[in-house]
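Bench log, entry 3. Co-assembly request; chain sequences pasted below exactly as received.
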Amino acid sequence: MTERTTAPRPDGDQAPPRSSRRLRRPGALETLVFSVLLLVVAQQWLVPRLDAPALQTWATIFVSICVQALPFLVAGVLVSGAIAAYVPPEFFHRVLPRRPALAVPVAGMSGVVVPGCECASVPIAGSLVARGVTPAAAFAFLLAAPAINPIVLVATAVAFPGQPEMVLGRFLASLTVAVVMGWLWVRFGRTTWLRPPRRHSSDGTPPFEVFRRSVQHDFLHAGGFLVVGGIVAASVNVLVPSSVIEALAERWWLAVLALALLAVVVAICSEADAFVAASFTQFSRTAQLAFMVVGPAVDVKLIALQAGTFGRSFALRFAPVTFVVAVASTVLVGWWLL
Amino acid sequence: MNKEVQPVVLVLVGAAVLKISLGEAYLRYVKEGLQPFLIASGVVLVLLGLLSAWKDLDRGAEQASPAGAADGAAEAADGHDHAHGGPGIAWMLLLPVAAIFLVAPPALGADAASRDTGTVAGPRETSFVPLPEGDPVPLSVADYAVRAGWGGADTLEGRRVALDGFVTPAEDGGWYVTRIAMSCCAADGQAVKVEVLGQPAPPADTWVEVTGTYVPAAAEDPRTVPAVIQASGVVETTAPSNPYL
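Structure output for the full assembly:
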């Protein structure tokens, strides 16, 4: 019981323990109440000064990213809490092939049936690892679920009417990324890169209490990182003029890289990215595909969530490699299909 | 973040979501279809926060220390169970909460639209149905822009149309009647602009109805520039409850 709520961070890669200790002296609750009161009092003075149009646009986009992701995040932490509290570890050993190399494609394909957004799949993958699922399979699921679920594929078909090859291309390229990343982890991955998972062992705590604490911890944790991702995405959205990006559409490889990088920094939900990709009419179809394959696999919001769930040293390795694999897979599929 | 603050943050986030989703304010940020899920997640968070507060108070009473020092003592009594309390990153969650309660950011408007080219993606079908009866014909700026830019201009010839949207000033002193097309949330909003000729520009972000007739854009490829309308009248209107297309 003692281990559960502590979320051990042996590598000390996080500032929070220190800062929360500092906050504890005056009492964090008092600090919170005080700052809320201060803000309410200052509102009269503050709000007219936030009137700059660019700042308002930023605030709208920031809030909308948080609001859009929130229901998916809540659903994700409820599912992951339920896995932690109610699904025995043996279950996954039964359904997944014992050999990690075989478990990876099975986990990747299971992403097809789970309609979710990337914000939901990170906590779920986290609790799968905590439940003893081989990390490689959990990562294959993590990458596949937001990219190739039915909702996303239908949205893609709607956004690219009369072009079923875009849907097929997206499916193949994203599944390839998930499976290749899983296999890369089997071959090169080290568990030391992962923050030790919180154990939800059965130590006499009632399952509902395990569920409640897991949901609370995961939501506060992942939610905080989601906000950080939202700040980055909103800033890029407001600060980088779209004319800069469109100037890159001239050369095919620049176009692919530009839209792939754009997908990383704007962090649009996987259920919406097809419509945005389709609006880049000056770009080649391979570049549009890159936007849709890279986005659900690696973006600033997702990197922040992964850093929160699996630790920073994991995210720093996983995200760049995923980006390279996703671009390579897009170029191959695009060259073959489009 | 210690055990006492966590329930407060949960309730605050839940309350902020409920505040926007129980009215129409959420339409500034996301699509209509998300409303039930927003309400549900707001309720879940508020209930979870209340439950946690109750459970922790319960436990706090059991382990109350004579010193009466609220959290420090309770956590010391619990050993390292609460050594870290909870994730410090969770403080970030107060940022969108503060934005919603204190600033209530408005829907995207002229500032966001001026950052976009304002052109539209190609239509699903290449054949255009004739405009419906009426004079003027009410038309969405997106419909107008697609017809004008993607080979349906002949369906607009000789007809008076009425477009509604907000005013986005152009750099050269002209202006556009604008709507923002949103597919999921405001972050993916794409401005659809129609350049208005022949009428002076109202102030930015004013909602207007522009009546006028089609004129071709002065560009070799009409798909790369906003469509154009020769306006005969501009009437100020009120913003619709859902400002996006």
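The longest helix of chain B spans residues 35-62. DSSP finds six helices and six strands in chain B.
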